[in-house]
Write a structure and sequence with these properties.
The protein is mainly alpha-helical. It contains 17 helices and no strands.
Length: about 400
Amino acid sequence: MPSSTDTPVAGSPVRNIFLLSISQALSGSSQGIVMAVGALTGIHLAPDPILATLPATVLILGLAFSAIPATMIIYRLGRRSGFMIGAGLAVLGGVGASYSVTIGNFVTFCLFLAIVGTAAAFAQQYRFAAADSVDLEWKPRAISFVLFGGVMAGFLGPRLSYMYKDLIAGHEFAGSYLVISAMAALAMFMISFTRLAPVPHPEPNEDTGRPLRELIRTPSVFVPILTGMASYALMTFVMVAAPLAMVRICGHPVDSATTAIQWHIVAMFAPSFITGFVINRIGAHLTVGIGLTLILASAAVSLEGISVWHFYVALVLLGTGWNFGFIGSTTLLSESYGPLEAARVQGMNEQLVFGTMAVASIGSGALLQLIGWKAVNVLVVPIASAAIALLAWGYGRSRKERRTASEVG
């Protein structure tokens, strides 16, 4: 039976996608704030400079550890109720993080950012809610249009974090985190108007699909999970270190760092307007391959120089690569399971993707301090190359299976 809290309305998919896109923009703004000024706040609060990127890492850890619980809550209570719970947690986390800055407490600052990360785990399900509400051919476009909301996040998050960093006199960046709470409150309002597709619940004795251990061994499942992990982890690995590298290592102003992150986030989501059409035109496998290649190109630009424009170009390429890689991987994954397998596959995917993100974030800050900015980018090359090779193997296997099925048919 469907959850009673989700009441689909005829003709509502377009409205739902629009509202989820706006909510994605607001949620993404909150994460953009932390990515833009989290390390710069941490450098003032942390007992050791090597811990400066820990706030952003803790946010990602909160997201990673909450991925499966958030998915279970959404599938238990319904999508709309689950999403509103997530937005409420972001309100709490933003206020708490701001207060922690005013009292100079690094530990509580990190703890409240972990709550913001937990809220983000709920928001990551927006794309699946959109995909599950439309026909198969519309899935890539539904995912893309929801993630297109991140364009607004790219402009709002880093810019608002800089505009309001001195809102509370004597406590730089404390005001930036209050913006998180304001964005989350507005997201709750938008979500209240959605009428999302009901989550499936099996009838007694009904077959619930393949067990998790079988799903994880299925190439159509594990290949997009691994390419999604690579796309998100590599993007995080470079993005988290970039503002600190610009300001602390290369001597660029804070405004340049926030602008770089702003355009990076825009590049992450602006292509979403066309990514769904690109996938329908050339296929998800090739789209993911293009994304991973752009990530390699980003590393190449970073290795060429450390001017402001090198950072700008590299981060724009990185964001665009993530968009193609992640949306393509999500599309491949969304086509690999049945309705009653969705919660298991989606929860497993979120746990693995964002767990890898957390490792990348931790490693990024430490390696930046120990071996430098260029070495961070060198490490991108073998991982992206391995992901491209895996993708090519998966594509070849899927073509062979389709050809065999066609011959049998």
